[in-house]
Please model this.
Amino acid sequence: MDRCVVRQAIKETKTGKIIGYELVFQGGKDSMYNNNEASAADTISDFLVANSAKIVNDGLMFVTFTPSLLLRNTPKMFGKDKVIIQIEDTVIIHPLAMPLIKKYCEAGYRFAINDFQFTPKYFSMLDHASFIRVNMTGYVENMQKQRTVQNIIEMAKGFGRKCMATEVNSKETYEAAMRLDFDYLEGSYIANTMITKVDKVEYMQGNFFQLVIAVSKDEPDFAAVEEIISRDAGLTYALLRLVNSAYFALRTRTASIRQALITLGIGQLRHWVYMLSFDKDKSEGSEEILKISFLRAKLASELVKRASGCNISSNDAYMMGMFSTLDYMVNAPLAELLEEIPVADEIKAALLDGSGMAGALQKLVIAYEKADWKACKTYAEELGISSEGLAQIYVDCAEEVNGIWNSLMTEIDYPQEIEKLETESPVK
Model:
């Protein structure tokens, strides 16, 4: 399979904040790191050189570097305050390991040790490590693993190091990790823990849900969309913040809902409706879930263009990705929520049971998000999508999501417009 890369969120245990992401290159048995080391370094280095500005712009980035990458000074293409250098056995046993690590530490870079082991060579690295990463695979059912993990945490704390649980991929593993003294958590289950679910009735009666319904119709009623937005100060402000952002670069700023909708267009509004609902006062977990839904939507809409056996539109694929996170946010079965949303039957079936070619597309997006490269290959072949360039598509989608998100989070810098928003309700 062609190279693949994905980022996975790292959550601070005490605050629930996302402090950064791990950049994961093909994992498990298909790992590039398990192949020829020089070849892996070439592939990873080329990718990082081409995409460094796109992937390291959203908190800390944890990246595993091979000895060749360290010798080539690859980490130095990133700022020392942006990247955490992860090292594992290939580096630790390298004859130049200690000089390399000392060189980067003296330059101000921080290190994380992957899968710490109780051996002298790992202990020799402790003085230079800021983070100890502990793989939680098999923890719940294996008593020996539980004792080992507990000992590693106690040892790390004794040395004043931060501990991170990785591969937190199930509810049971998450609950076990929360009972331990971990500082950070990483894994596919983390998204389920990022936001407090709202009641179904509260969600469906809200203005945001009504907006979702309105823009999901085949032929949205422009006036109805305007009316829904105008009666909600939060949606009004979010819409105006969006169209007045750097992304659209308007010559003249607007405080009119109608003009904003004309500028945005129903198509763009349909795509970004989740982003418009974001309240900066909500938890960081809410922000991360919205980013996940937006990235899934973007990736699905791009991949469907390359699928030879999938007859859904790019817009339908986008909506499928966007609605795939509903069960993270609403305390109700996804089937009940989808009954209220006018989306294609193929999309509902794909979200509920993964059936059809739309289901294969949804599974491909989720498998990629989880760095399940074997499943990615299976679903990509089923859809007739070449794995070549998949990593670049993902990174480009992530960059666009970040760009739009940053624009949305930029305050309108025209005092008169802000005053107008605060004093006039509704604004039209």
